[in-house]
Specification:
The chain is mostly beta strands. 11% of the residues lie in helices and 38% in strands. It contains 2 helices and 13 strands. It starts with a helix and ends with a helix.
Length: 151
């Protein structure tokens, strides 16, 4: 028990002087997903960048019907939490999977995949993405219309 107390006190001492930061909703401008990396209309609402204490960023990403990312990988992986609509995701060489609100996707480091909205329904997900050496994604080729179709 004394060891746990000592560890907790040491942790508090390391963070002495640190303060909580609150970023108010609507104070960070949304950005359009670049056409180089997305097909269709995509909006990215950045929530929090990676920093020295937590090496992960977070954003809400909204895909209009039929919109999707290009194939890509993440050096430290990515969680997706579907918050609204209907979506699709696919790992390279595997079938397309349907996504609904509440579904959580874990994209392991280095696994080639894509994600986006269903053909007739928009989809929003919360993305929490790890970074390595200042990078959190490696973009690849776009998803073809044939690859996009749910099986």
């Amino acid at each position: 028990m004394k060891m746990i107390a000592a560890i907790l006190l040491a942790g508090m001492a390391l963070n002495a002087g640190a303060e909580q930061t609150v970023t108010k909703a609507g104070t960070v401008a949304a950005a359009a997903g670049p056409a180089e990396y997305f097909t269709g209309r995509v909006r990215v609402d950045m929530l929090a960048p990676a920093n020295a204490d937590i090496n992960a960023s977070s954003a809400y990403v909204t895909f209009e019907p039929g919109a999707r990312s290009a194939w890509h990988t993440h050096p430290k992986g990515q969680y997706l939490v579907v918050t609204a609509g209907a979506g699709l995701t696919q790992e390279w060489g595997k079938p397309v999977q349907q996504l609904r609100p509440g579904d959580v996707v874990w994209c392991p480091p280095g696994v080639k995949h894509w994600h986006g909205a269903a053909p007739t329904t928009a989809m929003t997900h919360l993305a929490v993405t790890g970074a390595a050496n200042g990078r959190n994604v490696e973009w690849m080729e776009k998803v073809s219309d044939e690859q996009y179709q749910p099986q």
